[in-house]
Design goal:
The complex is a heterodimer of chains A (280) and B (356).
Chain A (H helix, E strand, L loop, with lengths): L2 E10 L2 E11 L4 E6 L5 H8 L7 E6 L2 E2 L5 H5 L2 E4 L11 H6 L14 H13 L15 H14 L4 E5 L7 H18 L2 E5 L3 H7 L2 E6 L2 E6 L1 H4 L2 H8 L3 E5 L6 E5 L3 H4 L6 H10 L2
Parallel strand pairs in A: 3-8, 3-9, 6-7, 7-8
Antiparallel strand pairs in A: 1-2, 1-4, 4-5, 9-10, 11-12
Helix pairs in contact in A: 4-5, 5-6
Chain B lengths: L10 H42 L7 H8 L5 H36 L11 H14 L5 H23 L6 H25 L2 H12 L7 H28 L3 H6 L4 H23 L5 H13 L5 H21 L8 H23 L4
Helix pairs in contact in B: 1-2, 1-3, 1-12, 3-8, 3-10, 3-11, 3-12, 4-5, 4-6, 4-7, 4-10, 5-6, 5-10, 8-10, 11-12, 12-13
The chains are: A alpha/beta (280), B mainly alpha (356).
Chain lengths: 280, 356
């Protein structure tokens, strides 16, 4: 299962957000798309998931143009968890996850054994089984996000796309969701593409990083070696230090900001060090 | 690092997991079935009571034999020819309104959305009042124009709200706006009409079952059966659509096409109801939340239809028996019950800061 794009152009109404973008998502790996707000990272994800029709170029799924496949056919190979899915009032967790089976079910006919097995697997993998009978609107943010991932998982596709799955979660729940995605990738070799805001999490959890700016890919590759102070400055306009993550050894980005420059004798050694470097 | 990080679930665990899921889903289904059965029985009971009461009372126990033609001749004629069409018409009109409201609220993802608020019934009213006051049209033609007006108004709402697809929010706002224009047009037509046709139009506008005979029960029944069947086919798509446009698209639903098809079913159901009984307000609006509350499910098309049937038949029973000498139109009763619910919903939406 391969996913990629050639000379892709994506636009909302008049504004072109992604221009002439070519990319190949490495199969069986976790790919994180990073970049500043409005750089086109969510737009690219939506384009890859056929939520947005290309203005030009093509998205290729297994070498075939997405537009030539029926949307239902695509849904059996690729799932997308959008930024703000809607949980209808009163829906139970089991019912919500079961709706992920839509592309596998015929027009008529009841849920099959295979459907229920996929729903149970998805809920077991995300630790949501004990929530099965609970209404989704009573869950905590972290629980709810796990339930949505379970729904996408029940869709049972080799490729999963997630648009900022950690937004609105506290730090512990962010890590919980990312650990879950890493597990899913390791367990079944699923290809996972996600848009992330946190650079350090992107470095730690992805095998492949795509850095975007103004609708183009600035750099892509393995996070180690790719994420440098220069790259962060280019992508985010942010002076920073990059040090090895003390836990994982992956690059860790420490922003500098302005306020430390004016402060008196900061206890932090790094800014001084930085000023030495920056001095003309 | 190990290739498998997740503890591989033992076969027993996964069987247990599947049983837990099956149980949770089956419990849901059982509750929905119980709620539907309860609503159906209550609606039938109300229908029987409605057949039994009137100037010529029929004891409740004799209603079913009378309907089957086993009673004496007078009772059979009163039951079958006078009261049954009205009661059946009430069940069908209520069912169609409940179905329509459930579809509208699910498509718009908003409990305020319903054909009586988003201009469908107002569109039907403009066309019907035009037929009554300007063309002096026959009852059949008024019915047809009510249906056509409802359809035309919905198409107008859809087209005005369309911008690379139709967002729920814009659809609701445009619908409310056009509904207001429709009401204004009706008032304008009424002020221009002579007193007799204005009176006739006002009776039609309140929504009443008193004029329903077999000639309108049969087409309403056919329409209701057909539309319910189509709605059930589209129900799985509607369930996906409830999760948001992007999620639905990701699940493989053709969002815009499905939404249009569902709206057409919804407007046809409301239009059929208006054609038979005039615009009975607030039934399409109230029946779906009643059904959702009773079933505990976020989408309940058949229970909503049953709740609508019960609402109309029970309201008509009240309308017929509240004052001994005269009957009031059923639309007055549903309005008295429905308006406070709308206010409560608006107040609640204001308080918790969302569209319902």
């Amino acid at each position: 299962m391969t996913l990629g794009a050639e000379h892709l152009r994506l636009a909302y109404e008049r504004a072109e957000v992604v221009s002439d973008l070519t990319v190949a998502i490495p199969p069986g790996r976790i790919t994180a798309i990073i970049g500043a707000n409005a750089c086109g990272k969510s737009t690219l994800l939506r384009g890859l998931a056929r939520l947005l029709k290309p203005r030009g170029g093509t998205v290729l799924l297994d070498g075939e143009s997405l537009q030539r496949l029926s949307t239902r056919e695509v849904a059996t190979r690729l799932s997308i968890l959008p930024q703000s899915p809607v949980a209808p009032e009163g829906i139970t967790v089991a019912d919500l996850v079961a709706r992920g089976r839509y592309p596998h079910q015929p027009l008529f006919g009841r849920r099959t054994e295979a459907d229920e097995a996929a729903i149970a697997d998805a809920m077991a993998a995300t630790g949501t089984l004990e929530l099965a009978a609970r209404p989704a609107d009573e869950l905590s943010g972290g629980q709810r996000q796990r339930v949505w991932i379970a729904m996408a998982l029940a869709q049972d596709t080799p490729i999963m796309l997630l648009d900022e799955p950690t937004t609105f979660l506290d730090l512990a729940h962010q890590v919980e969701v990312l650990d879950l995605l890493a597990d899913l990738n390791r367990r079944d070799g699923r290809t996972i593409v996600l848009v992330l805001h946190d650079l350090n999490q992107a470095c730690r959890y992805s095998h492949h990083l795509i850095a975007m700016r103004a609708g183009r890919i600035v750099a892509e590759g393995e996070p180690a070696g790719l994420v440098t102070e220069e790259l962060v400055r280019e992508v985010f306009d942010l002076p920073c230090r990059v040090v090895p993550d003390p836990v994982s050894g992956t690059p860790m980005v420490i922003p500098i900001g302005r306020h430390l420059d004016v402060g008196s004798g900061s206890a932090v050694a790094a800014p001084n060090h930085h000023r030495d470097q920056e001095a003309p | 690092m190990p290739a498998i990080d997740v503890a591989p679930a033992a076969a027993g665990d996964s069987r247990e997991a599947r049983r837990a899921v099956t149980r949770a889903l089956a419990a849901r289904r059982a509750r929905a079935l119980r709620a539907a059965a309860g609503l159906a029985v209550t609606a039938l009971l109300a229908a029987c009571v409605s057949v039994s009461v009137g100037d010529y009372p029929i004891p409740l126990a004799d209603v079913v034999p009378a309907l089957l033609g086993l009673g004496d001749e007078a009772t059979t004629i009163v039951a079958r020819e006078l009261r049954l069409p009205r009661v059946l018409g009430g069940l069908l009109v209520g069912g169609a309104l409940g179905l329509s409201g459930a579809i509208y609220q699910a498509v718009a993802r908003n409990p305020l959305a319903s054909p009586d608020i988003l201009g469908v019934l107002q569109g039907g009213s403009v066309a019907a009042v035009f037929g009554i006051t300007v063309l002096s049209a026959s009852a059949a033609l008024v019915s047809v124009s009510a249906f056509a007006g409802a359809l035309a108004m919905t198409i107008a709402v859809y087209l005005l709200a369309y911008r690379q697809g139709v967002s729920s929010y814009r659809f609701v706002l445009v619908g409310i706006g056009l509904a207001a224009i429709g009401t204004a047009l009706v008032n304008w037509l009424l002020t221009r009409a002579d007193i007799f046709s204005a009176a006739a139009a006002t009776v039609w506008l309140t929504g009443s079952l008193s004029a329903i005979g077999w000639e309108s029960v049969i087409p309403t029944a056919v329409a209701f059966a057909g539309l319910t069947a189509v709605a059930l086919v589209l129900m799985r798509r509607l369930r996906a659509l409830q999760l948001g446009d992007d999620t639905a698209k990701g699940l493989g639903v053709e969002v815009e096409r499905s939404r249009l098809a569902l709206l057409l079913v919804g407007v046809a159901a409301a239009g059929a109801a208006a054609a038979a009984a005039g615009p009975i307000m607030f039934v399409a609006f109230m029946a779906p939340p009643i059904a959702r509350r009773l079933t505990g499910a976020p989408l309940a098309l058949v229970p909503a239809a049953l709740a609508g049937a019960l609402l109309v038949v029970a309201s008509d029973l009240v309308a017929r028996t509240l004052f001994p000498s005269t009957e009031i139109p059923v639309g007055v009763v549903t309005g008295i019950v429905g308006a406070p619910y709308l206010l409560w919903l608006l107040a609640r939406a204001n308080r918790i800061g969302r569209g319902g």
